[in-house]
């Protein structure tokens, strides 16, 4: 099944189900704060595994106790697709397990 860009309404509807995520230009973005650098690093490793599982990768930034993600789908010209939301939902689950907020 081909991946198609989502409409603005579809993006807004899906974002309403993912508090903390937003649309920044043509990318879904989210930042998390964790209790320590080690916890943030552990989340990055967990997110990397999710990205490998989905074969869909975000830009991922590790700070001292923060992790930031930015994602869109390159294969459709950098638009937001269901793949991006699938990744976002999985990352949310992982972040909750790491105590991120």
Q: Residue-averaged pLDDT, rounded?
A: 97
Task: Determine the N-to-C terminus distance.
Answer: 34 Å
Compute the gyration radius: what is it?
Answer: 13 Å
Shape field:
globular
Tell me what the structure shows:
This protein is an alpha+beta fold. It has 3 helices and 4 strands; from the N terminus they run αββαββα. α2 runs antiparallel to α3.
Structure at a glance:
By secondary structure, this protein is an alpha+beta fold. The chain has helices at residues 8-15, 37-54, 82-97; strands at residues 22-24, 27-33, 59-62, 66-71.
List keywords for this structure.
101 residues; alpha+beta; 4-stranded antiparallel beta sheet; 3 helices; 4 strands; 42% helix; 20% strand
